[in-house]
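Feature request, filed as a ticket because there's no other form

It would be nice if the structure record came with a short human-readable summary line next to the tokens. Right now we just get the raw output. Example of a typical job, pasted below so the devs can see what we mean:
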Amino acid sequence: MEDFRKYQEEAVSVLGAGSWGTTIAMVIAEANPHLSVKLWAYEKQVVRSISSAGVNAMYLPGVRLPHNVMATGNIRDCVFGCKNIILAVPSKAISETCARISKIVDPDARFGYISKGFCKVQGRVLTISETIENAIPQVRGRIVAISGPSHAEEVSRKFHTCLSVASESAEARDTFMGLLECPYLHCRGSADVKGVELGGTLKNPAAIAAGMISALPACGDNLAGALIAESLKEIIRIGRIMGAQEETLLDISGLGDLVTTALSAHSRNRRFGYEIAQRIMTKGNTLGLFDRLMLRLRPGSVLAKMGEKLDYLAEGAYAIEPLIEIAAAHGIALPVYRSLYEILLNKKEPSLLIETIKDPRRFEEIYLSTKIQVKERKRGLEHTSGIHFREMILSSFEERYRRSEPLRAEIARFVDSLITPGEDGVPRSGYARDASAGEFALLQDARKSAAAARTLCDRYLAGIVDNYSPLVRLAFAGLVQAGALLGIGKSAGNRKILCTPTDYLRKEGTPLFIIAGAGLADPLSAAVALGNEWNTMPRFPVYLDAAGGFLKKALIHRSGGYTIDRSRLVNPLYRELLYAYAGVMLVNGVSMVVPAGEDAPVGDQFARGLIAAVGEMARNASARVCIVPVHIRQGYGLMLECGRIQQAFEMTGTPADDALAGLVLSDLGVSQE
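Raw output as currently delivered:
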């Protein structure tokens, strides 16, 4: 037992096996061959790669790791008993990671971190050191910020590098400096934790802006120099009110890191900004001939590439949004960073950034005259089944889960209501009694775990998503009454569609048809009628209790239908997944028919949540989505009354979302709570 304790004390734990976390583990292991360096990886394939080949093939290919770097997928084993811990996970995962290990971190441990960014915890914007201190109070005073101009690509190849190491504890600071120092890596000690961590965090948006202007016409090194100068002013301005020392911000962890990240080809933030600008300048979304061919042969590979485009704005928002909140709370002007925020989140044209860099004092004037970016309607994916968008849908849900504190709180309240027993000791909710043991266990974990929430949504999605086949569609298109064989369609004749005189809008967006009335009594007929009118083939909903057995459900899914379990609509996690499904399909050019939900247990809450989620996704993807309220009446034939067509991509926040939802629900005649 004594030997085990000594082994644990001499071990170093690195949590996060990305390129920088792996590089730091390599540096410590090489400089201290007598120590064991335990490297925790979230991805199982990373653990296998390091364990079997001594290389992190996913994040640091070609770099052989020392024998004393040991990879593990068990975070508890990695941390337990260790005196020196280094956190290297992305900023958006820090709060969750710290919560997982808070009870097993040794009371005497020194806790370093190389992550950069802000964290949102219970609606508050915190620095990483504040997040660690709140989650793991036993390490207060021994938290160590490690930052500076340091690309993993160079450090792993032993290029000369300087890092700042800051802590209130001289002993903790000296310990980590001793672990990291080697012939090619020098550490500068500091007591200014805030200054070191803010320098590394605040330069990230500037680096994104630098990458963006590098892709824009007539922008070169001259404007990049002006950007760095203006960004440094704003970094000092915000750093000062947050307690950072100006001297620290002008040192390697501030100005040094800013220059390196903004100008280097290795910079992920710069590359990120460059790719955003390239996508903004791409006017259309139509798939090329090769991609159309591959879509038929290997749809998964085409959609996997396209899936990357849905995540970039979420990442950009995470980098800049908390900073703007802090500035607004303290009344600080950050014109360059604010212009980047408006481009990323509110879809302003990139000219706003260029003109603001040139004259920051004119930001408000420039902002008011800058147009919104909007792309043409996406074409080429109309006949792609929802199954092939699975990863996009789950990633969209997970990103929303991580970013939205209100959503996590709503899920927690829902689960707590399920486990509250009545007087007889039996759960009050019928949902709790009907849920399987596996679903119930995942629901409980989903209150705090994004991984558990995603796993449960993956299970839900398997029962929801369409498996649309153009061949099946052709079989039914000519004779819609064949839907009667499924119990979801009636006569194809006597269809009448009444629309407001806004036909020109149909060409400007992928339609989201929100239906009320008797629409779900005959969804296939309604979908074909609307599809013929709009020259599209929308996916249509069928309630699970009307979907029948396995074969019938399979035919429904193959003909473009998706199934909704009405009993699960009270579950906010299930509703959010439906929103993600609809949103991903729409921004990729696949039209959708969705019920208003007036006959569901949640009433107008479903339609309101749907409109808000689709609006946010349309803005983030610069996609044109139009919302078409449809009231369907059954009688002699089928009458579809279309209300005022609204543009989802023009919404700019919660008040506008609510107002638009009110207009749509009013057109549908749905009572509003």
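Something like this underneath would help us a lot:
The chain has three domains: 2-191, 210-373, 469-668.
The first strand starts at residue 12 and ends at 15.
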